[in-house]
Amino acid sequence: MSKSLGFLILFFLAALNVQAQRPFNGFVTKHHNITSELEIVVFVPDNYSPKNTYPILYFNDGQGFEVGAHLSFEELGELIKLGEIEPMILVGIYTGGNRRQRYNPYLDSNIVKRNPEFTPLGDRYSRHVVNVLLPFMEKRYSIRKSKVGMVGISLGGLQVTWMMMKYPKTFSFIAALSPAFWVKEFAINKEPLPENLKDTRFYFDMGTGEWNYYLPLIQTMKKGGMQYGKELFYREIPGARHINADWKNRMISIIRLFLLDEVGDPKRLTIEVECIPSQRTPGLFFQRINPVVYLKNEIPYSLAYEANYKIIKGVGEVKEDGRFKVTEGNTMTVEVSYGKWVKKVKVKNCK
Fold it and tell me: Around Cβ 285, how many Cβ atoms within 10 Å?
């Protein structure tokens, strides 16, 4: 091979490497094949030092995470450079095959009807994460054990929620985006809760473009000792759908919530009125008042059951979770109160 050709090949490979790193602003990537069932990609701050300790956030569906489908590394990297977000380690866990089996802890008869060979592997996968992956990372990286979180989307969101209930105190933070809580007729809402569930900060959300009625889980978690707005957070996002782009839009806020040492009190309140089409029954709409408060750094969460609702004009009803119905006339005015805030909102039935 001639020297000139060799230089061209080296230049081409270097260019490829630069291109591969471009989406990961401020991070160096490392791959590990831990076992035949655990393959990961690790994003380490480019100024990483073993003398420091770093928060660590694990992600299901690591293959989408690696290509930037679930997180804007450019935005995250810039926020770290500006000092708004501290340097942290991110880990994408590859799906490794059939995600419907891997992330599912329940034998759902409806899934079996469509796929007779279906076997739920959520328990097995969760054990691998807790007993194999976490010790592996602790041996090789300088991790702040008080800041260990995990994020899951859809079925991955079901898995992280189930794992939180089975392995309390393992994670300081769990986030479930658009979680598939519908599996086995909402079995996740019937799980026995450990006494120390409140040691984990738990966030879950749902877009109104994909909405399922998962609000009862809030009440279940509160009975398990979680305090809403301190350890427990739910966010309802108007118009958001079950797609990568909409998950990506809220990931920075989730990272900010993960990193907060003290949540503190909300800074402001907004009111959203929603007309949400049912995902199961054509022509059925859920009419909801969705009060949203914002913490510092503009971290939002919905109040749901936490706000008080009072009809001050018109005739109808407003349930404790914000669902409403106008029974006489075209509109009614509802007073929404929470803490120091009192706001009025005019609502009408969906058409």
Answer: 14
